[in-house]
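User: Could you go from structure to sequence for me? I need the amino acid at each position, not a summary. Structure tokens:
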């Protein structure tokens, strides 16, 4: 008896508009992005921040201590506690950031939380005892101080709405609770609003210019670096050597080339060749003395400038690099390098020094590779 086989086609997925997320998920996602820590600052930015925060702490401490004394005299113990915690927390966070600069973003967020708690505490005190402990003018100054801190340490997309909320609450409380005719409050409140607007503009401009400066710095650094090895490219190498060769400064140039690199690419593929170039770049950064420019000149060729080295000391460095590549460079493919060494005296161009080192490199290639040769035979 024959049996018929029925092939059941899978039901195609229904097409249609995507299912919208619930409102609470959208809000959580949005606020999560606002509260997320920013990318780490560069070392230069961290140094500027630390110096600025230290100066701000010194300038603000006398007024904050006098405010604390005023609160103690009026026995406003809740505000004494919160204000004291803010002062102590600011000092501890500044020391924490100074000892561990990478923690500055976390310290900024913690301090922002302390400032918000302090602002809420002062607003609550004024609502309970208007004009009895802290008058409207002093309260306005305190809130402007807190707003300044929030604008300086938080991103503008978070600090500006929060600052507007605090200043709006201040104006509402003063209008409703001070017992003063609103016409008399008009001038002071609009002056405070103008001060706040100028502060916002200044801080936003500062953040924008800082961001632009940082991006320009990154772009300039990228334009001077080889993307594969992370070493300088020709442009970056030339710029670095110009900085070091001032007056009668002299040094030595090393030109390295991986032996039989084309065979590596043809046999093992370009991915393996790229890996070897990267590994060689990393090895050079560990072996070459700090502060000596090095670059991937092109293809499998590298160049190193040893500032202040004579030919004899440069040859020692070159031999160290050659031996390290032969014996310690990790990987499935064994490689060697040939190195040419040439003196780069003061007054001579990079082009001429490179030609001398390159001639020595090709002499090493002709003599069997995996060796160091000097441009001047008399210096050998």
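Assistant: Here is the amino acid at each position, in order:
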């Amino acid at each position: 008896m024959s049996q018929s086989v029925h092939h059941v086609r899978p039901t195609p997925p229904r097409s249609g508009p995507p299912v919208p997320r619930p409102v609470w998920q959208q809000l959580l996602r949005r606020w999560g992005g606002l509260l997320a820590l920013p990318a780490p600052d560069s070392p230069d930015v961290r140094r500027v921040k630390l110096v600025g925060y230290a100066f701000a702490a010194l300038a603000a401490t006398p007024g904050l201590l006098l405010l604390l004394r005023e609160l103690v005299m009026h026995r406003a113990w809740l505000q004494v506690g919160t204000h004291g915690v803010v002062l102590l927390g600011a000092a501890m966070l500044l020391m924490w950031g100074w000892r561990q600069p990478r923690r500055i973003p976390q310290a900024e967020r913690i301090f922002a939380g302390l400032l918000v708690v302090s602002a809420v505490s002062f607003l609550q005190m004024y609502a309970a005892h208007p004009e009895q402990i802290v008058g409207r003018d002093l309260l306005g100054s305190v809130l402007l101080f807190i707003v300044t801190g929030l604008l300086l340490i938080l991103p503008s997309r978070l600090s500006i709405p929060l600052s507007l909320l605090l200043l709006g609450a201040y104006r509402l409380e003063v209008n409703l609770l001070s017992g003063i005719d609103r016409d008399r409050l008009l001038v002071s409140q609009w002056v405070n609003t103008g001060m706040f607007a100028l502060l916002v503009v200044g801080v936003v401009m500062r953040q924008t210019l800082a961001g632009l400066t940082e991006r320009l710095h990154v772009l300039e650094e990228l334009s001077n670096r080889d993307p594969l090895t992370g070493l300088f490219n020709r442009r970056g190498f030339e710029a670095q050597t110009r900085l070091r060769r001032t007056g009668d400064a002299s040094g030595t140039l090393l030109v390295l080339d991986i032996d039989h690199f084309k065979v590596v690419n043809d046999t093992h593929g370009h991915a393996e060749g790229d890996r070897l170039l990267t590994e060689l770049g990393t090895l050079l950064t560990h072996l070459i003395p700090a502060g000596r420019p090095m670059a991937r000149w092109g293809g499998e060729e590298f160049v190193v400038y040893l500032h202040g080295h004579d030919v004899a000391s440069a040859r020692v460095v070159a031999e160290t690099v050659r031996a390290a590549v032969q014996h310690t460079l990790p990987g499935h493919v064994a490689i060697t390098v040939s190195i040419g060494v040439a003196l780069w005296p003061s007054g001579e161009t990079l082009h001429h020094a490179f030609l001398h080192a390159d001639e020595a490199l090709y002499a090493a290639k002709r003599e069997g590779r995996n060796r160091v040769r000097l441009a001047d035979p008399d210096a050998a």
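One structural detail worth keeping in mind: The first helix runs from residue 23 to 35.
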